[in-house]
Each structure stands twice: as structure tokens, then as C-alpha cells.
Specification:
single chain; about 300 residues; alpha/beta; D-Maltodextrin-Binding Protein, domain 2; seven-stranded mixed beta sheet; four-stranded antiparallel beta sheet; 11 helices; 11 strands; about 15% strand
Length: about 300
């Protein structure tokens, strides 16, 4: 659409992205024009100091919860799932809720010893945020986590590693996995099973902002509008297998399609100030201590 604009894309995990952007801002040098990440809370924290306002003309097509102060925009609608090894977990044992997951593992600790994987919340920004959202959604979260961890958790910093280990059989089951990645892999991996939990399914949105000091602000705004546009969202949904945050996209890989599949179980994480609560140093430290106690880490 804009052949004169060249996009340079740097891919890194959420914690690396946050630290790199902070250090580049402190050094006063060049940095990315646009920041885009699945770690919704840390991006909102950065945006408070470093984002410029931009009222995208595509904003009217987005849910109200997906935009913060005309600075941060949700760009995707990605359910968070369980994964399991289809060869090694009998269909009758596959859990369909967080409580069922905890019951399965607590009842077969020998089978699941060191065979359950999830994010290391100290190393992964996304992992920390999802754990906090679980805590908010489930009044018994730490009890549930303790039951899931009875056989010992194998924690990782990336979804890719977790999927690889479950697929190989090194681990048997994983939770708090980004569904878009799991669905993409499952198309070519017959060993990988996916569960959308029926009690609640968190929905993450990759969020983005344009930097205050962006060297190419106009190009950044064009990129922003393109990603949020019907055409851009169609590419995300139907070529990149990432569910669209719009409801007017071809096919089922958008908000409407996900709602028909999961209904009221869907719990979208809003792009708002509530994301910042557990980033306060004292509160974050206390939360990690509680998580480590429950997870036996």
C-alpha cells in the first residue's frame, strides 16, 4: 500500500524489548518508531512516559477497552490456552477448565512429575501479566496453582520452548500458552492438542504505541493505521493465524468468531490502568513471592 516505506522489524521477547527501549531512551539515541508487544502491562507503563498521542481513524472499529488515551492500541484478540501431548494424554483425561487441570495433575503426581510447563513469571513479562490476570479471574488461583505444581513445574520464558517440549513428550501439558502460536503449530504438528478452558479463557491483545521521539512519525502513523485497518487485520487473521481485534474480518478468526466458539468464557484483558497495579515494585515482589510459594519455586 505504501511502497516507499521500508519496515525494519526487530523480534525479541517482552522483557528484552522493555529493557532495550528503556536503555535507548536513557541514552538519547535512536530507537524504534513503534513498540509492539504482547506484554500489555509493561507496554502501558512505557507509554505513560514515552508514547505520543495519535487518534487513528481506525479506532471506531475497535472495542472501547482496546484503546488507552489515544496512545496505546490493542491490535489482536488472542485467547490463552492449554496445550497437551495427544499421543501421551488419553482423550478422557484432557482437562477442560483450570480446576480440571489442577485435579488431573494433583491426582497423578507421579505421571506428571516435572511434566507440566508454563511461563517463568520472573523472566517473562507476558508470563507475569497472565499470572496476575489468572489471580484476578480465579478467587482460588494460588490453591489451583499449588495443585498444578504438585508434580513440579518446568518453567520457561517463551511459548515456543513450551510447545516444543510438549510436542516431544519431554513435558505432557502446558498452560497459559498463546493460542495463536499453538493453533499455527498444531496445523503441522499432529502431537499437539489445544484446549480453550471453559471456566474462563483470558484474551490477550498485542499492544502498540508510537514513540514520542519517533524519527519517522508519519511513517509510523501509516503503519499503525494499516495494522488496524480491515486489510491489515485480514492479513493478521488469515495469513499470520493471529485473531483479529475487529469483528468485520473474513472467516472466523476475529472477535465474532471467537465469541461464537467460546461465548461468555472469554475474558479480554482491558488496555487500561488496572494493568499497572502489579508493576509497582513492592506489589510485584510480594506477588512473585506468593507465586513462588504456590509453584514450589
Amino acid at each position: 500500500m505504501y511502497p516507499g516505506i521500508k519496515v525494519e522489524y526487530n523480534d525479541m521477547n517482552s522483557t528484552e524489548l522493555y529493557n532495550r527501549f528503556i536503555s535507548e531512551q536513557a541514552a538519547g539515541g535512536t530507537s524504534g518508531d513503534v513498540v509492539w508487544s504482547s506484554s500489555m502491562d509493561t507496554i502501558l507503563k512505557l507509554a505513560g512516559d514515552y508514547a505520543q498521542e495519535y487518534a487513528s481513524p481506525e479506532q471506531a472499529q475497535l472495542p472501547k477497552w482496546a484503546v488507552w488515551q489515544d496512545k496505546v492500541y490493542g491490535t489482536t484478540y488472542e485467547p490463552v490456552v492449554f496445550i497437551y501431548n495427544k499421543r501421551l494424554i488419553p482423550q478422557g483425561d484432557v482437562p477442560d477448565s483450570h480446576a480440571a487441570l489442577a485435579k488431573l495433575i494433583a491426582g497423578q503426581t507421579d505421571k506428571f512429575k516435572k511434566k507440566v510447563t508454563t511461563y517463568d513469571i520472573e523472566k517473562s513479562g507476558v508470563g507475569f501479566m497472565l499470572s496476575v490476570q489468572d489471580f484476578k479471574a480465579d478467587p482460588n488461583y494460588f490453591k489451583t496453582l499449588a495443585d498444578v505444581a504438585k508434580g513440579g513445574l518446568a518453567v520457561q520464558s517463551s511459548t515456543g520452548t513450551m510447545m516444543e517440549r510438549v510436542s516431544s513428550g519431554e513435558n505432557l501439558i502446558g498452560f497459559n500458552i498463546l493460542g495463536s502460536y499453538a493453533e499455527a503449530r498444531a496445523k503441522s504438528d499432529p502431537s499437539l492438542g489445544i484446549v480453550y478452558p471453559k471456566d474462563y479463557t483470558l484474551v490477550l491483545s498485542r499492544v502498540s504505541f508510537i514513540g514520542k521521539e519517533a524519527g519517522n512519525p508519519n511513517a509510523a502513523k501509516l503503519w499503525f493505521d494499516y495494522v488496524l485497518s480491515e486489510k491489515g487485520q485480514n492479513i493478521l487473521a488469515n495469513q499470520a493465524d493471529i485473531p483479529s481485534i475487529r469483528n468485520d474480518i473474513e472467516g472466523k478468526n476475529d472477535i465474532d468468531g471467537m465469541t461464537k466458539l467460546l461465548g461468555n468464557a472469554l475474558k479480554p484483558i482491558p488496555v487500561d490502568d488496572s494493568l499497572l497495579e502489579y508493576l509497582q515494585p513492592a506489589k510485584r515482589l510480594d506477588y512473585i513471592k506468593q507465586w513462588r510459594a504456590a509453584a514450589a519455586k
